[in-house]
Amino acid sequence: MALIADYLVQGCQMLLILLLAPLLTGWVRAVKARLLRRRGPSVLQPYRDLSKLLRKEVVLADSASWLFRVAPYLIFAALWVAAALVPTFASGLLFSWTADLIAIVALLGTARFFLALAGLDVGTSFGGIGSSREMMIASLAEPAMLMMVFTLSLLAGTTELSSVARFMLTAEVGLRVSLALALLALVMVAIAENARIPVDNPATHLELTMVHEAMVLEYSGRHLALIELSASLKLLLYLSLLGCIFAPWGMATAGAGPVAYLGGAAIYVAKLALGGLLLALFETSIAKMRVFRVDQFLGAALMLGLLGALLLFVSRSL
Amino acid sequence: MPAGVRFATMSLPLLLGLPMLLLAVGVYAIAAAQRPEGGRQVYGIALFACVVLLALALGHLLAGRAPTTLTLPLGLPWLGAHFRLDALAAFFLIVVNLGGAVASLFALGYGQHERAPERVLPFFPAFLAGMNLVLLADDAFTFLFAWEFMSLSSWALVMAHHQEPANARAGYLYLVMACFGTLALLLAFGLLAGPDGGYGFAAIRAGTTSPGFAALVLVLTLLGAGSKAGLVPLHVWLPLAHPAAPSHVSALMSGVMTKVAVYGFIRIVFDLLGEPALWWWGGLVLALGGITAVLGVLYALMQHDLKRLLAYHTVENIGIIFIGLGLALAFQANQMYASAALALTAALFHVLNHSLFKSLLFLGTGAVLTATGERDMERLGGLIHPMPWTALAFLIGSAAISALPPLNGFVSEWLTFQAILISPELPQWLLKFLVPAVGALLALSAALAATCFVKAFGITFLGRPRSPAAAGAVETDRYSLSALFVLAALCLLAGILPGLVVDGLAPVVSLLNGGARLMAQHDRPWLTLVPVVDVKSTYNGLLVLLFMTLSGFTAAFLIHRLASNAARRGPAWDCGFPDANPAFQYTAGSFAQPIRRVFGSIVFQARERVMMPPPGDLRPARFEVKLRDPVWERGYAPVAHAVVALSSRFNYLQYLTIRRYLSLVFGALVVLLLGMVLWR
Amino acid sequence: MHGLAFDIAHFLAGGMVVASFLLLYQDRLSALINIFALHSLVLVLAVGWQAYIQDAHHLYVTAGIALIFKAVIIPTALHRIVRQLGIHRTLEVVGGVGRDMLAGTALVALAILVMLPVTAGADALAREDLAFALAVVLLGLLLMVTRQNAVSLVVGFMSLENGLVLAAAGARGMPLAVEISIAFSVLIALIVIGVFLFRIRERFDSVDMQAMDTFREGRRK
Amino acid sequence: MSGAGFVAMTALLVVPASAALLLVLLPGYRLGARLNVGAALASLLASVALFGTRPEANLYLRVDDFNIYLIALNNLVSFTTSVFSASYIAHEMETGRLTPAYLRFYHAMYQALLFAMNLALLANNIGLLWVAIELATLITVLMVGLYRTRAALEAAWKYFILGSLGIALALFGTILVYLAAQPTMGEGLPAMAWDQLLARAAAFDPALLNLAFVFLLLGYGTKAGLVPLHAWLPDAHAEGPTPISAILSGLLLNVALYAVLRFKMLMSANPSALAPGPLMVGLGLLSLLFAGLMLYRRGDIKRLFAYSSIEHMGIITFAFGMGGPLANFAGLLHMTMHSLTKSAIFFAVGHISQVKGTQRISTIRGLTVTHPALGWGLVAGVIAIAGMPPFGVFMSEFLVVSSTFARQPLLALPLVLGLLLAFGTLLWRLNGMAFGKPDSGPAAPVQASILPMLVHLALVFVAGIWLPGPLVAWFHHVAILLG
After folding, report:
1. What are the Cα distances from residue C38, in Å, to A91, C15, C61, C71, C174?
2. D300:C217 CB<8 A
3. Once rounded to an integer, what is the mean pLDDT over residues B121-138?
C-alpha cells in the first residue's frame, strides 16, 4: 500500500514538472514583455503553441536520417528523467537514489549530444554553426557545473540531491564562501545552458547569432514541439535545482502525507515564480555578448567553481 | 572441491598452450597467406583461441581461485620461464582476449579486403600470443621477452602497408619508442632484481627495495609502461602508429595493447613494488594522468583523420585510467585502503570500458574504410543512409566514450569522480591542491570528449556525402557487423549492470590493495551501484535506461496516437536559402573552430589566416590553420637534431689518414702508460 | 765477469736507444735507411751478447736472422724503392726535429719510469734491457706517427720491432724467440712488398678526398 | 679415449693446413669451392668430436671449457660461410670481378685462415697464440686486398699497418707476461704454457702483469676493433669479399677477444694485480657510443654492419669489464650470438649487394617486396642484432643491462644510451632498405643460397628461447674463472 503511494507520488512529480515547464517558460516571457512595456502573450501561450505544433504534420528534409526523427524523443526522455530526479516539492522520493547530481549533469549531456547531432544531420550550414557553438559552450559549462557539484558534495558528503537538500536545511552549513561561489557558478551555467541572454537569445531571428535555435531550425511539427518542451523542462530543471540546493525550505520529506506534499508543491511553485522573475529581470537588464566572449564568461564560472572546491579541500583539514 | 582444483591445476597449461597454438598459426600463415581461404582459417583459429582463453580467464576470475604457477625449462637457463595466473592476470586476459576475439571476428570479413595479406596474417596471431604471454609471465625475463615480442609483432603489422612513406616513418618511431620503453623497464627490473639477479617475480615480491630505489623504479616504470600506453609526453608515436595498421589491428593496439601497458604498470608498481613508500608517487601519476587526459582530447579535436582522432582519444582515456591509479597510490600511501579500493575499481573498470568502445570505434572506422576507402572526415559524410547498422554501432560507441548515461563510459568516470570526492581526507597539502585541479581536468576532458565525438560521428555519418566515394558506400559484411554489435551490446550491458562488473573486479582489487575491496553489489535493490556506504552517492544505470525508454516510448505513443503522425519529405529549409552544394556543410575543421580558438590558441599556438584576394583578383580566398605540437617541438626534435649533429660532427673520423690513426693508437698507449705511472 | 757482462749489455741496449734517437733526428730517407742498418747492427750485437752470456744458442739464430735480414737485405731493398719512387731527396718532418727530440726524451723518461719500479723482482739486467726496449718501441712509434712517408713508416716499424726482439732476447730463457723473430721477419718482408705494391700512393697524407669519395662512401649525403 | 680426442685436436689443424696446400695446387674454382666446403665440414666434425672426448693438455695445445665451444662455433661458421662463399664466388666469377687464379689463392687462404684461427683457439702457449693471431692477420690482409681495386688495396694497407702495430704491442705484452712468470715458473716453455701460468698466477709480479695487460689489451684490442684502435675494421669489412667480412666479424674479432680474456683470467687470478675492469669498461663504452653515432651517417651497407660489429665488441668488452657471474655469462653468450647473427647478416648483405649490384644503402629499397627471402632475412638479422626477442642477443643484453644497473647505475645509463642510439640509427637504415617502394633497379638473377643464413638465424632463435645445458655449464665455469 505504502509502496503504491510512493509510486504515485513519484509519478505525480514527473507529471507536475511536465505540466509546469511550459508555464514557467510562459511566465518568464510574460514578465519580460511587461518589463519591456509590452503586453505580450498570455502566460498560457506555450501550451497553445505546443498543442498546435503537435497537430501539424512534420516536414523532413530529404537528407534527414532516422537519427533526426529519433533525436527529439531521446532528448525529451533524457531531460524529463533528469528533471524528474531533482527534488521539487519533496525530497527522498522512491527513486531519488537512481541518479545523483553527477548523473543528472551527464543526462543533460546526453540530451545535448543528440541535439547537436540532430543539428548536424540535415547537413546545412546553420545547423553546423549551432552544434559547434553549443558544444563549445557545453565543454566549458559542464566542468563548471561539476566543480559546483564538487563543492556541494564536499560540504554535504554526498552527491545525491535529496541528501544534499536535507543537509542544507541543517544548521551546520553556516554561511560559507564556497557556497556563494558555487551559487554564482551554477547561475552562470544555468544561463548558458538554457540559452538565455547574455549567452544566447531564445527570441532572436538573426541566424548568425543563434546557438540553440540554429540547431533546431530544421525541426517542425511534433518534433519541434518535443524540442520546445524539452527546452522548458531544462529551464525548470535548473530553477528547481537552484531551489532545492540553495533554498530547500518548505520541502516535504518522503512519506509526510498528502497535506505536506501539497504545501511543498505550493512553496515549490512560488520558488519557480520567483526564479522566473529574477531571470526575466536579469535578461532585460543586460545585453547579449559576442559568441567568443562566452568562453571567458564560462571560464570565469569554471574558475569560481574550482576556487570553491579548492577552498573546501583546504579548509577540510583545518 | 576436487573438480575446481583439477581445473585450476590444468587451466594454466591450457592457457599457455593457446598462445603456442596462435604462434603456430602465425607460422602456418606464412604459407597460407597467398591462398584465398588462408585468411579465414587464420582468423577463425585466432577467434577460437581467444574465446577459449576468455572462457578460462573468466572461470578463474569468477570462481575466485588461488593463483596457479608453472615453470618451463626455457628462457634464462638457471631460472626457467615462470608463468602465473592470478586475479590481475585473469582480468587483463579477459580484456585482451575479448578484444582479440572480436577483432578476429571482424577480420573474418574485413580481412578479405586486405591488400597485402602476407604481411598481416603471420603477425596477427603472433601479436595476440605476445600480449597473452605478457600477462602470464612471472619473471622479469619472460615478461620483457613477451613485452618486446608484442611490440615487434605489432611493429610488423604497422609496417604492413609500408609503401606509404608516412607508415614507414610511423613504424620507425614506434619501434624506437618501444625499445626505449623496454630499456626503461629493463632498468627497473634490474633494480628490483638486485645485483645477483633474482629475476623471478616471487623473489622480487619477497625482497625489499630501499625507498630511493623504489622511487627510481616507479619513474622508470612510468617511462617504460607509459611510453607504451601513451602517457603525455611519451605519446608521440601512438597517433602515428595505431592508424597505420589495418583497422582490426588498430583496434587491438589502441583498445588492448595500451591495456597491457597499464597491466605492466599495475603489476610492477602495485604488486612487485609492494607498499608505496611515498605519497608524492600518487601525486606524480595523478598529475600526469590529468595532463594526458586533457591534452589527448585536445589533440583529438584538432584531427580530421578519423583513425588518428581515435588514437589521440586513446591517449585521453589512458590519462583517465592513470588518474584512478594515481589516486589509488595516494590513498594507499596514507593507508586509506577503502578509498584506494574505489579508485582502483574505477581505473580497472575504465580499462575494460575503453577496450570495449575503442575497439568498437576502430572497427567501425574499418567498416567505413572498406566501404569508402577514406579515413579523412572532410571527404566523408552522410554514411548513415547507406550503412545504417554501422552507424548505429558507431553511435553507441561514441555515446559510450563520451561518458553518457546509461552507457558504460559514464560509470567508470562516475566512479573516478566519486574517488576524487572522497579524497579531501588526504593529509598532504600538495595533494589537497592537486586533486580538485585534476578533477577539473577530468571534467573538462569528459566534456571535450563529447564535443569530439559529436564531431566524429556527425561529420562522418550525418549530413550529406562530401565525396563520390562516400556517396557510393555500401553496408559492410555480416561478420564485421556482428563484431560491432557484440561490442555495442557489451557497452550497454556494462553500463546498466555496473554492479556485476564491480563484483567481478573485487578479487583483483583486493589482490592489489592489501585485501580491501568494495562491498558486494549484486545483492543491492535494483542492482544499484553503491561504491561507499557512508557517502550516499548512488547510481543505477538500469533504472535510468528504464525510465528513458519508458518516457520516450510513452511520448512517442501518445503523440502518434493522439496528435498527428503525418510526415512529408521536402528540401532542407535552412532559413530560406537551401544550399545545393554539400561543400556548404560544416566540415570537421569548421566544427572544431570554436574549440580551436578557445583552447588551441593556448596549447598549440593555433594560428588562423584568411587570405582574401583583392577585388578583381580571381584567385579563390584561402583559409589556413597552423598548429604546432609543443611536445614534439620541445621534446623530440631537439634530440633528433642532436644525434644528427653529433654524428656529422664525428663523421670525419671515418676519413683520417693512416698516420692519424696510428697516432690515435700511440696516444692511447701513452695515456695508459702514464696512467700506470700515476696510478702507482 | 758479471759486472762486465752487465755493462756491455747495458751499453749495447743504450746504443739502440741512441740509434733510435738518430733515426728521429734524420730527415733524409737514404740516411734514415743507413741509420736503420746501424740500428739493426747494434741489435745483432746486443742479441749476440745476450746469447753469449745466457749461453742460449737459439739466440744466435735470432741474431743471425737479424744480421742477414735487417742489417743487409731490407736496407738495400729500401734503397732501391727510394730510388725507384724518386723520393730519396728529403722528407719533411711533421712539426720539426726539435719537437720530436723533446717528445722522444719524454718517452724515454716514461719508459724508464714505467719499467724500473715494475721489475723490482727481476734481475737488474732484464730491467735495464726491458726499459731500453720499451724506450726503443716508443721511439719507433713516435717515428711512425711523425713521418709522412711510407718508407720512413716502415723504418719506424722495424725499429720498433728491433726493440721487441731486444726485449725478447733480454728475457732470460724465453722460448720461441726464434720463431717469433722469423714470424716478424715475414711480417716485415710483407710490408716491404706492400710498399712495392703501393707505389700508387707513396705518401699517406696525399689521400685526396675527391678520389676517396669515389670509392669510399661519399662524405656528405 | 683421449687418444681420439688428440686425433680430433690435431685434425683441426692438419685438415685445414693440408687443404690449403692442396687448394694451391688445385686448378678449377668449382672443384676448389667443393673441396673448401668439404675441408670445412671435416674440421667441423672434428671440432664436434671434441665434445665427446677431450684430449689432455700438452705444452702447446689444450682444450678446455673456454675454447671448446669457441672452436665448435669457429668451425661451424667457417663451414656455413664456405657454403655461402661457394655460391657467392660463383657470381663473382660471372661478373668477372675475380679470376680463377685469384680464386685458387682465395680458397687456399680461406683454409689457411681457418688453420690459423683454430691454432689460436687451441693454443696453450701464449707465444703460439701470438704467432697464430699474427698469421691470421696476415692472411686476412691478403684477402681483404683480393679485389685489387684501389679502395681494396688501401683498406688492406690500413688494416696491415694498424694490425701489425697491434701485433707488435701484443708481443711486447706477451714478453712481459713471460718475464712476470719467469721468476716463479723458471725458464723455458712452462713459463708460457698458459694453464700452468693460470695455476700459479697468484705468485707473479703484479706490477709487471699490469703493464703486460695494458699492452695486451691495446694489442689484441686493435684486432678486436675497439675504439680508438678500430680504424682498420670498417674499411676492411667493406672492401673485402663478403665471406671474408663474415669471417672477420663473426670469428676473428672473437679470437682477438678470446686472447684478451685469457689474459684477463691471469689478472683476476692474481689478487694484487689491478682489476682490468675499468679499462675494459671504458673502452667498451667508448666503442659502443662512437659506433652508434657513426652508424647514422653510413652510406655503404657493409661498412654499416662493420660499425655495428664495433658496437657489439664494445658491449662485450663492457660486460667482461663489469665482471661478475651474470655479466661474464652475458659477455660469453653475446660473443656467440654476435658471431652467428653478424655472419648471417653478412650472408644476406652479400647476396643483396649482388642482386642490387651496389653496396650503397641509398640505392637499395623495398627489399621485402623484390626479394622477400633476402629482405626478411635481413630484417630478422637486424632485429636480432639489435637485441630484440625472440633472438639470443636479447638475453645477453638483458643480463648486461639489468645486472649493471643494479651495481653501477651511472655506468648503465651511458650503456643504455648507446644501445638506444645504435638501435635507432641501425633501424633507420634498415627501414630504408627493407621497406618502402622498391625502385626498378638492376635485379641480377642470383642463385643465392639462403640456407646458411637461415641456419644461423634458427640457431640464434633457439638460443633466445632455450640454451643447452652443457653450454650453460661451460659458460658458468668460464664466467667464474673470469672473475
Report:
1. 117, 10, 19, 7, 25
2. yes
3. 95
Neighbouring residues of B195: CB distance < 8 A, sequence distance ≥ 6: D324, D403, D406, D407
Q: How many domains does chain A have?
A: 1
**Quick one: which H or E segment has residue B624?**
strand B622-626
Is the CB of residue C75 less than 8 Å from the CB of residue C33?
Answer: yes
In whole angstroms, give the CA distance from residue D142 to residue B388: 75
- From the number of C-beta atoms within 10 Å of its C-beta (0-12, 13-18, 19+), residue A208 rates as exposed
Residue percentage of chain D with pLDDT more than 90 = 51
3-state secondary structure of C147: strand
* Chain B (30-69) residues lying within 8 Å, Cβ to Cβ, of chain A: none
- Cβ contact (<8 Å) for B677 and C110? yes
Residue with cell 702457449: D125
More confident position, A185 or C65: A185
Q: Which of B34, B139, B145, B161 to mutate to test the interface with D (most CBs of D within 10 A)?
A: B145
**What's the rounded mean pLDDT across residues A169-174?**
74
ipTM of the complex: 0.92
Would you give the DSSP letter of residue B65? P
D/A touch flag: 3 or more CB pairs below 8 Å: no
Q: Which of D168, D175, D183 sits opposite C160 (nearest CB)?
A: D168
Neighbors of chain A with 3 or more C-beta pairs under 8 Å? B
| Strand residues in B80-179 grouped as ranges (E) | 81-85
Q: Which long-range contacts (CB under 8 A, 24 or more apart) does D352-355 make?
A: D352/D301, D352/D378, D352/D433, D353/D242, D353/D301, D353/D302, D354/D88, D354/D91, D354/D444, D354/D446, D354/D448, D355/D443, D355/D444, D355/D446, D355/D448
Give me the residue from B149, B189, B646 closest to D293, CB to CB: B646
Whose cell is 743507413? That residue is C34
* Secondary structure class of B529 (helix, strand, coil): strand
Beta strands in B80-185 (DSSP E): 81-85
Mean pLDDT of D21-36: 87
- In this structure, what C-alpha cell is assigned to residue B480? 564485421
CB contact under 8 A, B436 and A150: yes
Chain B segment 567-606 residues within 8 A of A by beta carbon are 567-575, 578-579, 582, 584-586, 590-595, 597-598
CB contact under 8 A, A54 and B591: no
Extract the C-alpha cell encoding D345.
647478416
The 10s digit of each residue's pLDDT in B212-270 is 888 999 999 999 999 999 998 999 999 999 999 999 999 999 999 999 999 999 999 99
Q: Which domain holds residue A271?
A: 2-316
CB-CB under 8 Å, D293 with B676:
no
pTM over 0.90: yes
